[in-house]
Amino acid sequence: MTDQPRRRLVLASQSPARLGLLRQAGLDPEVVVSGFDEDAVTAPTPAELALALAEAKASVVAARPEVAGALVIGCDSVLELDGVAYGKPADPEEATARWKSMRGRAGTLQTGHCVRDTANGRHASGVASTVVRFGEPTDAEIAAYVATGEPLHVAGAFTLDGRSAPFVDGIDGDHGNVIGLSLPLVRRLLAELGVGITELWAPRGK
């Protein structure tokens, strides 16, 4: 009996949170940043925007010769609030205004996912949606949080695995999706391409 070589897995994202989630699930992806201009993409709804961005990032990286034969995962997240898509705030002032508008309310974190198999050109994609119920941090707490710089680097100006966690009362859906990607959705997309996620597990101890 001979073992099939494990497929290369490439994450088309510089997000340490996404990389961390994949590693925690037993995967060992390489990171290749797409450098794609996100401002060049528009879509009718936040969910469609997240999906279009994820597909674009995966496509850009999949076209590179150095990833030939690999499975490429592209993701992008936006926060939907009142039907509007919000990504990373441009500056501290925008982050402060965002938090003041979110507190005491609920929004939906939309994350687009796309998996491309560069060995055969096939791809599968989808969107995971998680409702986020925000707490009511005080103006002083918001100012202190924004001063850390963290909200400038995450979609929606918050994350569940950082300093904003105490300001989120709860979620309805996949918590990993809010952090960066939905592992259950990644598993389903891989399955659509005929790849079992357990086939991609890194050897124990790696």
From TrEMBL:
A Pfam entry, by short name: Maf
EC nos: 3.6.1.9
Cofactor dependency: a divalent metal cation
Uppermost EC category: hydrolase
Domain of life: Bacteria
Cellular component terms (Gene Ontology): cytoplasm
Active site (record annotation): 76 (proton acceptor)
Protein name: Nucleoside triphosphate pyrophosphatase
Entry's family note: Belongs to the Maf family.
Chief subcellular location: cytoplasm
Localization annotation: Cytoplasm
Catalytic reactions of this protein: a 2'-deoxyribonucleoside 5'-triphosphate + H2O = a 2'-deoxyribonucleoside 5'-phosphate + diphosphate + H(+); a ribonucleoside 5'-triphosphate + H2O = a ribonucleoside 5'-phosphate + diphosphate + H(+)
Its job: Nucleoside triphosphate pyrophosphatase. May have a dual role in cell division arrest and in preventing the incorporation of modified nucleotides into cellular nucleic acids.
GO molecular function: nucleoside triphosphate diphosphatase activity
GO annotation terms (biological process): nucleotide metabolic process
Keyword list, A-Z: Cytoplasm, Hydrolase, Nucleotide metabolism
InterPro entries in the record: ITPase-like_fam (IPR029001), Maf-like (IPR003697)
TM ranges: none
